[in-house]
Amino acid sequence: MTNKTLLTNNHPEIIENMVDGLFTVDTNRVITSWNKAAEDILGFKNEEVLGKKCDFFNSPTCMGVVLNKNGICPLFSEKKIVRKRCVVTDKNGKDKYLLKNAQLLKDHQGKVIGGVESIVDITELVEREREIDLLKQEIKGRRSFYQIIGNHYTMQNIYSLIDLAKDNDAPILIHGETGTGKELIARTIHYTGHRKNKPFVKVDCTALTETLLDSVLFGHVVSSTDGTISMKKGKLEEADGGTLFLNEIAAIPPSLQVKLLKFLEAKELETKSEKASRKNDVRVIAATKKDIQEFINKGSFLEELFNRINEIPITIPRLRDRKTDIPLLVEHFIKRLRSQGERPIVKCDQHTIDQLMKYNWRGNIRELENTIEYAFLTCRTDTIRFHNIPQQIKQRLMIEGITTDKKRNTNDERVRIANALKMTQGNKTKAAVLLGYSRITLWKNIKRLGIGA
What we know:
Strand content: 15-25%
Number of domains: 4
CATH architecture of the largest domain: 3-Layer(aba) Sandwich
CATH superfamily of the largest domain: P-loop containing nucleotide triphosphate hydrolases
Low-confidence stretches: 63-69, 402-408
Helix content: 40-55%
């Protein structure tokens, strides 16, 4: 007895006149029946879908979860699906957001012969929810400050600190992971404060040797061929009246820490050519991704210097700790990229936003920005969809999806590592990148969990 026979042998007119879409599949996920409401929702006629597998709809999700590599339908593993959201592409190529319920179908002997699914179109509801969320964010607080984007309460705290610091001349220490926007915070403080018409000078402390960094910061004597001696300005002097931004200050060698501390205390620069000192009015903003207290404990960073530069501490939250800002950031990146060219891309669909909000973002805002730039290049419509997202992000989502709604345990970690190794054909270096580990950490975890033993 077929699925359709089981459903329609008594009241076929009821099935055809249901408000909800309804269809059945066999155990191979081949569509065996399709009612009029399903046709109205997705645009496909009965004859266009019968005999085809349900992945015919090009859905990036199945019952609200990202499909695994083998495309296994969760209905046949979970037995029943209740009120799960998913997104499906209709006949016109537009995304339809559906609410699904599904149940296994069994014959009179209790053998599973397929499944029956009901679908309700909730596209308008999803769009309204998105608009309401944006309105709530606008009511709750500022969505942006200068070029900084974010409505999360941690960002509201950052905005308040910037308001307090921008017209104050005390040194600032900005702490945050790579990609969180430390330089943007520093520039915002400068360009919204009373020094905005003076220079903003940046020095990357990790890119220079000790001798070169000394010359770059404090200047050096230059002798010409005719014996004339002059003084080449250092960045501190170039920034006079403005702001000097010291990126990764933890990398400054101890000998230069002493000189920098002396300058901050006296606000004077020694002019070697004149053998004298003169006042220098510069505001110093430093940044680091390191824990400077650890450097102090090891004796490689002066505690006095730390206390001097840390008069106004600002800690930038990680993107994974403020995921509610991701829709705002995506919207901002799309607008900026659209303004730079002629691409007509206007938005990112809700399913893709949902998946981006599940991702861990180890590279923070910079990684998200790179992701949207890639999607912008690959998108050929006005809407970025999940297939436009870089493959590496999708692979990591697949691995992380195993434990999206529950606390990780040892078994979860074993499965994640095993899946990553399978995806990379056993290449531990590539698997480590997917998992966000170093290769050594991955090797240790493989050994600890007995994977492949």
